[in-house]
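Weekly puzzle thread! Below is a chain. First person to post its structure in token form gets bragging rights.
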Amino acid sequence: MKKFILIPLVLFAFIIKVQAQDDAIQRFFSKYMDDDRFSRVYISPKMMQMAGGFLKSNAGTDKDSEDLGVLIQKVKGIRILSSEEVDGMAFYKEAMGTLTRNKYEDLMVVEDKGSSLKFMVREEGGLVKELMMISGEEGDFTLLSMLGNFTYEDLNLLAEKTDIPGMDLYGKGSKGPKGVK
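Winning reply:
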């Protein structure tokens, strides 16, 4: 009888541990949700679906608009946390310490005197499930997390054709087969 109780408890503990690692950035966002020094933006999957559907339906003969509509519907949500009132480097270091590093691969890193910018991706099954941008400098911090199911070509197109926050910085990098180098 004790074995039957022990097995579900062990499985439950394992599930909780896996979820805790996956939700590290969500916890970081939640920690500062009520802090008035930060601006917070959340764009839901439903909003992205609506925007993509609108673009597709109004594309007419414009193939680029139709393709962009399909692409935007792949975005499953965008979260942005930013402030111009904090020590951005301290928050950059805190956010980086929150990540489970083995789940994210660096795409682009820009280090300058007193500032850091990093783009990272989390891949599963050959698709980018999350694009993360973290930047910090004196008096400025931004964290952007974009969830979806993307190829690197999709990300390149998003950088070139949209005004999604942070994608202008992504687009400034050199794009190779895996995106920004």
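Puzzle host: Confirmed. Bonus trivia for everyone else. The first strand starts at residue 39 and ends at 43.
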